[in-house]
Amino acid sequence: METPAIPVPEARSAVPASLRGLLPVLLALPVLALFQWLMSDAPFASYLLSVVGVNIILAVSLNIVNGMTGQFSIGHAGFMAVGAYISGVLSLNLKDVALSFLPVAVSDQVFFVVSLLVGGLAAALCGFLVGLPSLRLRGDYLAIVTLGFGEIIRVVVQNTDAFGRALGLSGIPQTSSPAMVYFWVFLTVLVARRITGSSHGRSLWAIREDEVAAEAMGVDTTGYKVRAFVISSFFAGIAGALFAHFVPIINPGSFTFVKSMEIVVMVVLGGLGSTTGAIVAATFLTLLPEGMRSLFTLLGAEGSLAQKVDQIRMPVYGLLLVALMLARPQGLFGTKEIWDVLPRWIPRKRRGLA
Amino acid sequence: MSAAVQETKAEAGAPLLQADGVSIQFGGLKALTDFNLSVRQGDLQGLIGPNGAGKSTAFNVLTGVYQPTQGEVRVGGQRVNGWLPHQINHLGLARTFQNIRLFRALTALDNVKVACRAQGALHPEGVGLGAKMKGAFINYRDWWRALLLTPRFQQEERELTQQAEHLLEVMGLSHRRDEEARNLPYGEQRRLEIARALGTQPKVLLLDEPAAGMNTREKADLMVLIRKLRDDFKLGVLVIEHDMKLVMGICECITVLDHGETIARGAPAQVRNDRKVIEAYLGDSYLESHGGAA
Ligand SMILES: Nc1ncnc2c1ncn2[C@@H]1O[C@H](COP(=O)(O)OP(=O)(O)O)[C@@H](O)[C@H]1O
Ligand SMILES: [Mg+2]
Known about the structure:
Largest interface: A-B, 40 and 56 residues
Radius of gyration of chain A: 21 Å
Strand content of chain B: 15-25%
Structural class of chain B: alpha/beta
CATH class of the largest domain in chain B: Alpha Beta
Structural class of chain A: mainly alpha
CATH topology of chain A: ABC transporter involved in vitamin B12 uptake, BtuC
Number of domains of chain A: 1
Number of strands of chain A: 2
CATH superfamily of the largest domain in chain B: P-loop containing nucleotide triphosphate hydrolases
Oligomer: heterodimer
Shape of chain A: globular
Strand order of the largest sheet of chain A: 1-2
Bound molecules: adenosine-5'-diphosphate, magnesium ion
Order of helices and strands of chain A: HHHHHHEHHHHEHHHH
Largest sheet of chain A: 2 strands, antiparallel
Strand content of chain A: under 5%
CATH topology of the largest domain in chain B: Rossmann fold
Distance between the termini of chain A: 22 Å
Helix content of chain B: 40-55%
Distance between the termini of chain B: 21 Å
CATH class of chain A: Mainly Alpha
Order of helices and strands of chain B: HEEEHEEHEHHHHEHEHEEHHH
Number of domains of chain B: 2
Number of strands of chain B: 10
């Protein structure tokens, strides 16, 4: 099954080494611009694709911790909430401020990006504070602590006026766009892939495989786990911040334990450790309820049944997960990526640098 | 250590690894009592004893997996009580495990690369605040280099690959480069563990029953290889081995443990005829299978 050893040629790509870091970004920008242009007249598609994108960011970032590093975090929605509320409140307060030397639309986007980054960094800080004590310990502490963290965030939000309590926060400027969401999807995936292809990624895999051996081989296991967790939390915060800027209202109901489990199911379904698996699973599991809803509406079950989709969502996920564990416990792709799994006639990517 | 051995190694200087009166207790069980040891560059020492004597426990205490309840461990002159295993490893102490603990889903090459990368030269971590800050800075800089895929990072990756490939070659594993560790035959997994340990550029190498499960021929080859590694990599080596004959063949100094106590120490000829040693091994029915030759 393995191919014979072929040494990596020194310069196997035509791209100069100095450009390889930036090239994907340069390629992505025109694609995103085109995408934005196509989406400009389709509000529902824009919304749906944005939700898909946010879930991809969540799944791919959680996969860095639960997949690559072999830890078990079940409070990702908590970090998403931190990003959503911090950036939401910030944007609300900066609503009427504008950079006078820029056109209004551009000025809005500048503030939006700043607000996103603040949300992401706030979530990353929470990730650090939650991760540092719990990742020192082995086993299930992280699961318990992240579960607790998610609940604490919810309770804090419900009891803080600035966050709109249980009613939620509305009126956040709707400055998000599919292009912005997918730019961050792209960044998240790029970061995940580059971690995988680097010595940091190998250290994370080593921790997943055998923590004692990794320590003995000089890997600062706690340090690596915390850093992976902080990066993961950062992107969860970004996802939440993006979310807050395209939905009419955010409330604690959007960031419950159920949401956390939804993300865990995506990662497990895609295959713990597989970035492309997380992307496929997140897309599928986001569109599935939408599809069901449309189907019911089409069948004339307007209202009642269509609304039930949200209620039967969790049982459906549960069944999916059980079926998966029985049929394919390693998930869709296992630890592999989609190009390792696809039929042979599709040219395969060598293992290594992303 | 015997006087004779001490003399021949006189030029090697201070011990790279030293244990002073180390004891460890698990609940009521004294797994290791007043354990002393000193390994210098160029040493090839043996640690033997019946099953459950406390040999692996000794390794675990030396490498920081367990904390001694008494006594002191020094690596390169530095007291390492309370240090974490990876920090001790950065001081130049590497090990293999009795029950092979490879990164099973990683390729042979990546197993070694993990070890090569984690090295002190690149991450000068210590336990002091200054060293920690410096380590943290280098660490974050390295993450950014990896994320931005800088030319410097790409160059480092190539160097790591070369380094790891070289070690695979030394251990006769080049043909397994891209195979997952779990798919390697048993003997090769043991050798891969040694390659991985060498990747951390150790000064002292601890091998926990490296020949376990091998046939006689493989064992003999391995012992020759271990001696070669000691010379080529300028190591001090401490080997745990159950097969007394093998240890006797290559080690200059042997420590014998029984029930956590050091019952004998010295040159092979000396240890072989020690009454306590013979008794300990008789109890282990060792002599039954080896016809008393040991
Ligand atoms: N973590 C532990 N907790 C309790 N007892 C232990 C632990 N590790 C080892 N022991 C005990 O210490 C004794 C020595 O074990 P070990 O060092 O593995 O022996 P060996 O000489 O065969 O390598 C055994 O009785 C073992 O059960
Ligand atoms: Mg043992």
